[in-house]
Amino acid sequence: MNVYADNAATTRVSRTALRAMLPYFDEMYGNPSSLHSVGQRAAEALYEAREKIAACIGAEPREIYFTSGGTESDNQAIMSAVEAGRRKNKRHIISTAIEHHAVMNTLKKLERQGFEVTLLDVPENGIITPEAVAEAIRPDTALVTVMYANNEIGTIQPIAEIGAICRERGVIFHSDAVQAAGHIEINVVRDNVDMLSISSHKFHGPKGVGALYVRRSVPLTRLIEGGEQERNRRPGTENVPGIMGMAAALYEACENMNVVAPKIMAMRDRLIEGLSKIPHSILNGDAKRRLPGNVNFCFEGVEGESIVLLLDEYGIQASSGSACASGSLDPSHVLIAIGRPHEIAHGSLRLTLSEENTQEEVDYILEKVLQVVEHLRNMSPVWRDLVEGKREYVIQ
Amino acid sequence: MNVYADNAATTRVSRTALRAMLPYFDEMYGNPSSLHSVGQRAAEALYEAREKIAACIGAEPREIYFTSGGTESDNQAIMSAVEAGRRKNKRHIISTAIEHHAVMNTLKKLERQGFEVTLLDVPENGIITPEAVAEAIRPDTALVTVMYANNEIGTIQPIAEIGAICRERGVIFHSDAVQAAGHIEINVVRDNVDMLSISSHKFHGPKGVGALYVRRSVPLTRLIEGGEQERNRRPGTENVPGIMGMAAALYEACENMNVVAPKIMAMRDRLIEGLSKIPHSILNGDAKRRLPGNVNFCFEGVEGESIVLLLDEYGIQASSGSACASGSLDPSHVLIAIGRPHEIAHGSLRLTLSEENTQEEVDYILEKVLQVVEHLRNMSPVWRDLVEGKREYVIQ
Amino acid sequence: MLYSETVMDHFRHPRNVGVIEDADAVGEVGNAKCGDIMRMYLKINDGVITDVKFETFGCGSAIAASSMATEMIKGKPLIEALSLTNKAVVEALNGLPAHKIHCSVLAEEAIKKAIEDYYKRNGIEYDKRDFPDCDSCSYCQNE
Amino acid sequence: MLYSETVMDHFRHPRNVGVIEDADAVGEVGNAKCGDIMRMYLKINDGVITDVKFETFGCGSAIAASSMATEMIKGKPLIEALSLTNKAVVEALNGLPAHKIHCSVLAEEAIKKAIEDYYKRNGIEYDKRDFPDCDSCSYCQNE
Ligand SMILES: Cc1ncc(COP(=O)(O)O)c(C=O)c1O
Ligand SMILES: Cc1ncc(COP(=O)(O)O)c(C=O)c1O
């Protein structure tokens, strides 16, 4: 059996998205900046895509800017808010300890440039409180950036409440909705969000394309210089097929959400229930306020990469919170932030489901995870020490 | 008849490129950072693409970085060189007056930040001399950036000679090869280029993906912050299908260049010969040292946009040097730089051919351009004044 | 499309193109440097525009705006032609892209220039401020 | 693939996994905090390693490196085992990704630690500098 359960890393491009892209490679391949009909047809397509995406998040078409992905959207949003802040001598930024590297590393860069960054602590359930944001806001706060939903533990933040506070206090509010868009309902007006990042490949659209919502009255500055594309805010020939694929994928995801999400959540909860039965295992993140497809567990005494590699041997694609692949030995900053000790944080497993998964696959995953954890514990000196009472269990 | 003659704006994605992309949308759709086999298959694909692109320009695979297009490549190259220069207190940049906006506007931004930019004058033939570069280099020169071939008038710069000078003088040399790659032979070693930008959609690859060649010993800094993709130099989930399409397209273009280029040049020269017969018309850029497919003319007494729109009515897609579409009333800075007066620069027509064009199409273009120029001159008050001797011809 | 069907129709088949050799008034605005020149020729009889022709050097919307504007004033009293606004031309064209609005302004101004020429030729007094002058135009940055 | 076929083979089917209850020496390196722990058990007879077992908590390459290293020293004189380098382990594994090289270092060090333990237990003199110590390891930043 082959079970792809790594949909938070990336998703399969849906048939709808692919069908939307194909004509723009070799039939309507014009450059939207070209005056002639072939170019103008591409320009019209771009506009349609803008309308579709806007409709999905309650925005207006002209508030949507196309980018090369979630990372670029995050960077541009933050740098824009900071630029606006700089002009008013505001040099303080508020964020959380569990943001994606696209946000976190941009903030680190800004710290090196003299900005002051407050990273809000995150409680064990992985959800910050609006009050914490309210308390952190200062007169010189230029930006609050809080992710809509976390990529590792799937927890959903109280974005509408935070948005209301920021709006009231006159602080620009950005949310990295890369994991949320297409999976849970987003409405930028209801949520009082000023800027919002999305990335196509997280909702069955193609890789290498994203969007940034920017509220009408919020100034957006360029991250790159060049031509006058995207109303002079994002130069470079537009990725027309990619944009068409993204719009089609998001539209489909939002249209089907009411039907699909409960189905995925049922599988998620079955997985959570099953994995909880493994002794000395613990669910990471709030059990309910999490993305429909996200399951994240720590297993005491085993290491995450080996779980992932062994599951792969059984045809199951999953991921581990630890950033092993990237050459770093640090365990996930998210798991550390919610209070998991280092030795436990190394033993995490993330399974992220989509509508393509089945109940049968869930049962197969459960069977194999049990097997793999047991296998690895059997060769783990840590596990031996725990069993022999030489070491105390962290997870009861 | 439908004749696409705007290949410098963008090209049709070739069958080879499309075939190379397709499997990566919905079969091998993994994230190259994922540990499991689905992700690793994507990582292997990325490496293959890197090898292919490197082979096309005489580079090593690890010297190739993937970006979202030519604009981003240009920005990152320039900002990196400037960063390296800043550390050595070098704040002078040399470029030309005919660079693409991706370079030009980046340099303008740097000027605002206190860098000194020398834009070399360009003679009427559109080709700068290596001597001009040599003379402009100062002890505090951080970067020389000269485009390989111009996007409007197609002229090819003496890159290898300029590269030799820069290497000798120890100055970083970047070349925007967006219009050159896949059309004329490039070898980064022979050319002594330190950094080189390419953009996939200019050689029958998909839009929204490009590459930056960076010589081993040249430091590259990040333009955007995030994950550790592209050896920590360009974060964001890689556009795997786009990259595969780009590599396949470039490889095909380079393999076929010896056969295809002469065919395109023959069509180009036939067009140039035919259009030269229109009274008071003039070819822009050197007649021989130009891209195989580039034809660019000024016609006295008519305006470019109307030529383009009328040709489009006849099924011919072309472009005008004037940046009308972008909302600017300024005529092409390139035509101004080679000495065309404003009123002439407004009346330019660019026809850019690819291997998909035919001799028959060339004859059709000739017939229609003649017709359109005559039609527009007949309603032009400028032309009337010229004919009646109230105004002097600029083009004899 | 960049332009509405109406704009394209007037661009493809411009109405009233040409010269009136014995025109009673001629008005010209714009310059080749900024990329647009419009010239309007009027025949005027009893304060009514009995014929109008134009020549235009410029982009698609400049040609369409000239064509539409001539249609809108043909057969009209001078006083009515004088009150033609660029907005009316844009509306009649079913819209113009934002950065092409200045073409409609040129059309309005070309007509006014022609009428001013008529007043001058016939010694009719008029208020200079009602008429455009190139120095006040912000569209092309004359060096 | 991330790992060579040899690495994957040793990861899938690790050789010499387990415990030697009456081991003559035990060596352990790494810690759970930094994500890798290796424990080596040796049976030593007449200066020869007659049996070896390992337990590893760690990533795929840590498990594979432990497995390979035990294979390489089994049946070998102590003196030969002592000269086993991490480089030899990497070569035997047909390479490791750059950022996983430290796993081979751990394997080398676990063996040395075990041999050190043997010297200590048996009062054999040795030069401390020939043996690893956790403080000199730069792989995990111990707080
Ligand atoms: C010379 C040159 N440089 C840079 C670019 C920018 O490339 P892209 O639009 O793919 O970002 C282009 C084309 O638009 C170009 O012709
Ligand atoms: C929460 C979050 N933000 C940002 C990103 C970056 O998106 P991309 O890789 O498309 O640039 C990701 C995914 O990688 C993510 O999960």
Q: Largest sheet of chain C, order of strands side by side?
A: 1-2-3
* Computed Rg of chain A: 22 Å
What is the first-to-last residue Cα distance of chain C? 34 Å
Spatial strand sequence of the major β-sheet of chain A: 2-8-7-6-5-3-4
How much beta of chain C, percentage-wise? 15-25%
Q: Could you say which small molecules are bound to this protein?
A: pyridoxal-5'-phosphate
For the biggest sheet of chain A, the summary is: 7 strands, mixed
Q: Give the helices and strands of chain C as they follow along the chain.
A: HEEEHHHH
Mean pLDDT of chain A: 96
User: Total strand count of chain A, please?
Assistant: 12
What is the string of helix and strand elements of chain A? EHHHEHEHEHEHEEEHHEEHEHHEHH
Query: What's the gyration radius of chain C in Å?
Result: 14 Å
Mean of all residue-level pLDDT scores of chain C? 91
Residue stretches of chain A low in confidence (pLDDT < 50, at least 5 long) are: 323-327
What's the helix count of chain A?
14
Count of alpha and pi helical runs of chain C: 5
Description:
The complex is a heterotetramer, with two copies of chain A (396 residues) and two copies of chain C (143 residues). Helix content of chain A is 42%, strand content 13%. With 396 residues, chain A is α/β, with parallel strands linked by helices. Chain A has a seven-stranded mixed sheet with strand order 2-8-7-6-5-3-4, with helices on both faces. Chain A has a three-stranded antiparallel sheet with strand order 9-10-12. In chain A, helix 6 (130-136) runs parallel beside helix 7 (159-169). With 143 residues, chain C is an alpha+beta fold. Chain C contains five helices and three strands; from the N terminus they run H-E-E-E-H-H-H-H. Chain C has helices at residues 5-12, 60-73, 78-82, 86-92, 101-121, and strands at residues 25-31, 36-45, 48-57. Chain C has a three-stranded antiparallel sheet with strand order 1-2-3. The model of chain C has no long low-confidence stretch (mean pLDDT 91). The complex binds pyridoxal-5'-phosphate (PLP) (2 copies). One pyridoxal-5'-phosphate (PLP) is lined by residues 69-71, 74, 100, 102, 147, 151, 176, 178-179, 199, 201, 210 of chain A.
